[in-house]
Design a protein that fits this description.
By secondary structure, the chain is an alpha/beta fold. The chain has eight helices and eight strands. The chain has a single domain, classed as SPOUT methyltransferase, trefoil knot domain (Alpha/beta knot, 3-Layer(aba) Sandwich), CATH 3.40.1280. The longest helix is centred in the N-terminal third of the chain and has 15 residues. The chain starts with a strand and ends with a helix. The mean pLDDT is 94.
Length: 182
């Protein structure tokens, strides 16, 4: 199984200070749609700020239980994968409780690491039944400490130029396609 986590803390801001970033409704919608398209089991929106969690829950509830479910059934299909939680540990507890598994944590980053795993290797591990939790950082990326605590670090997404600052929505779609696409 593949799980996705959009992590708002701990991440860097542009000055490399550890911060908690703001929730972005577009991220919730677009990553949910990509997750549904590629067969992700559950998409966790991870943010420890109470008001942000409430906003995420309200948005998700509108599409899961409210008028949005009838208005746009396709959006309901995507948003039913979303679960807002304050911390990664909460997502992992939810997975253990509901799936009785402990997925390998995979850090995604735009930075280079010598020990990074390539897409082909991770795709093979998934095909062989390894459960993974893809960790996507907001802001200017996951902290070094967080990245080093993961089981794997995935190689960055590169294009043909030296520009390397994708939105997290774009990065998620590209990475899911590389790992789970046909």
């Amino acid at each position: 199984m593949v799980f996705v986590g959009l992590i708002h803390y701990p991440v860097y801001n542009k000055h490399r200070k550890v911060v908690c970033t703001s929730l972005t409704p577009l991220d919730i919608h677009d990553i949910a749609r990509a997750s549904r398209t590629f067969g992700v089991e559950k998409y966790y929106v991870i943010n420890p700020i109470d008001s942000h969690l409430e906003l995420a829950k309200t948005l998700v509830s509108f599409w899961q239980d409210g008028h949005g479910r009838k208005y746009n059934p396709a959006r309901y299909e995507a948003l039913k994968l979303v679960k807002p939680v304050p911390y990664l540990e909460d997502a992992l507890k939810d997975i253990e409780k509901n799936y009785s598994i402990k997925p390998k944590l995979v850090a995604t980053t735009a930075r280079k690491y010598d020990n990074a795993i390539d897409y082909k290797t991770l795709r093979e591990k998934i095909k062989q039944g390894e459960d993974i939790f893809l960790c996507f950082g907001t802001g200017w990326g996951l902290t070094e400490e967080f990245i080093k605590s993961c089981d794997y670090i995935l190689k960055p997404v590169y294009g043909p130029t030296d520009y390397n600052h994708l939105s997290v929505r774009s990065a998620v779609s590209i990475i899911l396609d590389r790992l789970l696409g046909v």
